């Protein structure tokens, strides 16, 4: 992670160029994202519109295929990459079983699988995220009193467990628990057995888990094509679970979600057509002139409207080709051409400040041309032989 001009950025790729008097050799070295660098992503907090009351709140940062938790409700990244959140089912607090018109009833899981659409804050592009309602648990804080001839057996379709699952229970407070498991693609529906309750008291939430299938979304071509942006959704998902009174009405318990995923700009690599580039030498008007050009492609995820890339160069010999004996040198100029615009990377023997390349045309890759030139009077080159320098091209993408 670099800190330049107070702008935090990630050193994404470095090209090391060995300049010779007759040819230029370029060796590519990729810099991997270190764990300490990845953890810094979680510091990038962001503000969204106000969350729905008692919503499951989830804030994530993604960088290439890395997911980092920023903040949220009891967030955990499981071994398969799925993100699990838990808001302790706070929205059920205060629910009275007889609110539906009867003190008898049962709890039903109607559906566990759904998806939400996240919208980019800057660009307005959208992406679909598969979601699963996970385990839900709450204490009715009301006592079981009696049973009926119907609904004495639990209904379980694809769930790990549903409680209460039988009517042969001692009197006491009843805890409702539906566990669909962590298989993100497996649906779970069903219902508890039915009781009549007494000593009705306000319910108390214990657990409500939500599973986000980040791996599937991030592997999709649609996600790969998205520009860096803050993708978010505030919504209420209905028809997932409800309390059904034996006589009277039912009560649906919507799932409020507040999800924000920041897709960071990143490099996947700096790609070269070859590691060897001929340096053409010509003699014009008593001058020795040299020229070399190499197309380079920066690949990753870039922001075509608001993003930018910084390019700079470093030289072992202060931008001069030096012969093997160290007794002769040839100063040179290095520049990059992007979108038909030429950017000098050095001024005589000193490096220029990093140039800013913006108005990026492609979200997936940035083509550029690296040019090296020199013109030196023949009278000033007194030593024959090979002249060389080590040139480092640095490409950086600032965090949005």
TrEMBL record:
Domain of life of the native organism: Bacteria
Protein name: Uncharacterized protein
Lineage, broadest ranks: Bacteria, Pseudomonadati, Pseudomonadota, Gammaproteobacteria, Enterobacterales
């Amino acid at each position: 992670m670099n800190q330049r001009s107070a702008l935090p950025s990630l050193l994404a790729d470095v090209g090391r160029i060995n300049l010779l008097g007759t040819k230029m050799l370029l060796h590519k070295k990729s810099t991997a994202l270190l764990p300490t660098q990845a953890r810094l992503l979680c510091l990038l907090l962001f503000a969204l519109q106000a969350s729905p009351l008692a919503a499951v709140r989830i804030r994530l940062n993604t960088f290439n295929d890395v997911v980092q938790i920023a903040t949220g409700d009891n967030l955990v990244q499981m071994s398969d990459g799925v993100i699990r959140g838990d808001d302790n089912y706070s929205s059920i607090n205060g629910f009275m079983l007889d609110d539906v018109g009867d003190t008898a009833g049962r709890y039903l899981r109607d559906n566990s699988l759904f998806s939400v659409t996240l919208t980019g804050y800057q660009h307005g592009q959208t992406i679909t995220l598969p979601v699963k309602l996970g385990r839900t648990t709450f204490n009715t804080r009301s006592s079981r009193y009696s049973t009926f001839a119907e609904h004495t057996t639990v209904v379980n379709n694809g769930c790990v467990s549903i409680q209460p699952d039988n009517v042969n229970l001692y009197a006491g407070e009843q805890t409702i628990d539906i566990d669909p498991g962590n298989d993100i693609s497996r649906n779970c529906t069903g219902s508890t057995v039915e009781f009549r309750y007494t000593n009705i008291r306000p319910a108390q939430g214990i657990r409500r888990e939500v599973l986000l299938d980040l791996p599937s979304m991030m592997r999709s071509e649609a996600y790969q094509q998205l520009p860096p942006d803050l993708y978010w959704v505030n919504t209420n998902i209905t028809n997932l679970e409800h309390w059904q009174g034996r006589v009277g009405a039912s009560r649906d318990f919507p799932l409020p979600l507040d999800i924000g995923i920041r897709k960071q700009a990143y490099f996947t690599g700096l790609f070269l057509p070859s590691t060897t580039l001929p340096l053409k030498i010509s003699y014009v008007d008593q001058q020795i002139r040299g020229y070399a050009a190499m197309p380079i492609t920066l690949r990753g995820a870039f922001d075509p409207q608001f993003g930018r890339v910084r390019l700079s160069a470093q030289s072992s010999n202060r931008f001069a080709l030096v012969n093997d004996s160290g007794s002769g040198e040839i100063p040179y100029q290095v520049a990059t051409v992007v979108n038909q615009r030429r950017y000098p990377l050095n001024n005589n023997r000193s490096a220029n400040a990093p140039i800013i390349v913006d108005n990026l045309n492609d979200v997936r890759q940035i083509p550029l041309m690296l040019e090296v030139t020199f013109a030196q009077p023949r009278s000033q080159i007194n030593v024959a032989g090979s002249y060389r320098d080590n040139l480092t091209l640095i490409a950086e993408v600032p965090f949005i």
